[in-house]
Amino acid sequence: MQSKAAACGLLGVRKGSWTAEEDLLLRQCIEKHGEGNWYQIPQLSGLNRCRKSCRLRWLNYVRPNIKRGQFTMDEVDLIIRLHKLLGNRWSLIAGRLPGRTTNDVKNYWNTHINKKFPSPQKITRDGIAQIAVTTTTTVIKPKPWIFKGSSSWPMMKEHEMVEKPKEDDKGFWQECVLLEKLENKFFHNSGIQSAYTQEKN
DNA sequence: AATAAGCACAACCGCTCTCCG
DNA sequence: ACGGAGAGCGGTTGTGCTTAT
């Protein structure tokens, strides 16, 4: 496994909050050289930052089309259902919410949802609570799946497929269908065409 | 007005996964 | 098949802001 020094390329890299100048350098560098080449980004950009720090900053803050501010009820609804289905797979959950980052979703879950509703028994009144109570599907903690045929939920890259649920797992499939409907409603309300819709078209 | 406590979010750390030689 | 390097992910911590006392 990699050492910390190897992970960060060199010792003595800058830590802590990013400045506007650093954000600008990072943005310009990625616009010029493209996303993904994180090993070279610190050198190419002139930033004295660990590559992991650069990646995180880009994904969670600098990247265009990041949606900030309050989560809508539809988004919260979707997060709760996806979490019930996928567990703490924040990257997958965030991937279903356009403009929301993994960190955003994870932080929101930990600070709002998880604290408010630590266990289903304590949920009683509002809409979020009812959603959480009425679904009893067991949390599935799989490797990512890909669905063949007409269903496109969840949408994963083909190479990510490792396993998929049993065909007779009715609870799971019902939840998938429900989520697909919820997503369509969410995308319709937000005026965004979902990847699901795009794929069908 | 001062200070403590709580909250929200940004960032870091360490581990696993994936790719490639 | 194996090992090393880089990328990605989730858990945790740090920090700054807000609210309560």
TrEMBL record:
Gene3D superfamilies: Homeodomain-like. InterPro entries: Homeodomain-like_sf, Myb_TF_plants, SANT/Myb. SUPFAM superfamilies: Homeodomain-like. It is found in: Nucleus. GO terms for cellular component: nucleus. GO terms for biological process: regulation of primary metabolic process. This is Transcription factor MYB1. It comes from Nepenthes gracilis.
